[in-house]
Amino acid sequence: MEPEFKTIAESAVSLSQIILPAQTNPAGTAHGGELLKMMDNTAGACATKHSRAIVVTAGIDNITFHAPVFMGNLTICSANLTYVSNRSMEIAVSIEAEDLLAGTRQCCMTAYFIFVALDEKTMTPKAIPPLQLINQAEKMEFEAGRQRMQERKESPNVCWLPLY
Predict the structure, then answer these.
(1) Residues 22, 111, 41, 9: is their CA dihedral positive or negative?
(2) From residue 121, how far is each of 70, 115, 125 by CA, in Å?
(3) What is the CATH number of the domain that holds 121?
(4) Tens of pLDDT, residues 30-87
(5) Which of 15, 58, 67, 134 has a CA 20 to 30 Å removed from the CA of 23?
């Protein structure tokens, strides 16, 4: 039986929320951990939509803070698949902040999230539907994602102990 291909657009997700005082530091900007949590939730929804399975975060790469997110900003977190192998998915996630009073938007944060789909009974990795790439931009991003996944496999995967 041939696997059912799915498009990137089918699983793309956006989540929005207003940044509240409890999510900010004394400078009035959002805690990085709050933004990462939002990104992880958005990426998880994207991975679940694609795989239709329980998913877990396997890694996060290239976390970049481009600009601060201020209290009262509307954050728009967007996620889409960039690469899918047999058992893992790379998802590009970004956060834009909208100043609702000024009506301006700015890209504030980007990262790549790696997810694995799990078999519901054994909780072991399971096969993921392949991607149907529609246009040249998707094909280029898929190839870049394939290269990033290869680099991840080649780099040491060790847990280090604190020095103190």
Answers:
(1) positive
(2) 43, 18, 11
(3) 3.10.129.10
(4) 999 999 999 999 999 999 999 999 999 999 999 999 999 999 999 999 999 999 999 9
(5) 58
* Model pTM above 0.70: yes
- Which amino acid, 128? I
Residue 1 inside a domain? The answer is no
Of 34, 145, 124, 30, give the one whose Cα is nearest residue 82.
145
Question: Residue 28 carries which side chain, given as an amino acid letter?
Answer: G
State the pairing for strand pair 131-132/88-99. Answer: unpaired
Task: Please indicate, yes or no, if residue 71 is contained in any of the structural domains.
Answer: yes
Alpha carbon distance 87, 153 (integer Å)? 13
Residues comprising the chain, all counted: 164
159 in a domain, yes or no?
no
Q: How many domains does the chain have?
A: 1
